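User: Sequence in, structure out. Go.
Assistant: Echoing your sequence, followed by the structure tokens.
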Amino acid sequence: MDRERFERLVERVVASLPEEFHARLENIDVVVEDWPNQSQLAKLGLRDGHALLGLYQGVPLTERGGHYGLVPPDKITIFQRPIEAKCRDDAKITAEIGRVVRHEIAHHFGIGDGRLRELERDESP
């Protein structure tokens, strides 16, 4: 899939989020990169770029104090190539983008990986 089409899918997922999320997504950039870089992998203790589909970098809302301000935007990066490697057709790619975007936004809201795994298990049929 070309980058432009993939980015449009990411934009659609973000645009389709409920309004209460949009109101709390100020000062956050959502970007697409091909692969995670070595620094990103090392910080997470990963060696394989295929293992990282998305990454939240910033200060979660739950950790911001009263003096938080005048800071660069938080950043959510969606990694195109690992998602494509995991998903073999457009429908699965689209669904995975949705899952990854929601997962990274959850980190922005202060929800950790353990709790996210619990929530994802609860959603599974």
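User: And one key feature?
Assistant: The longest helix spans residues 90-108.
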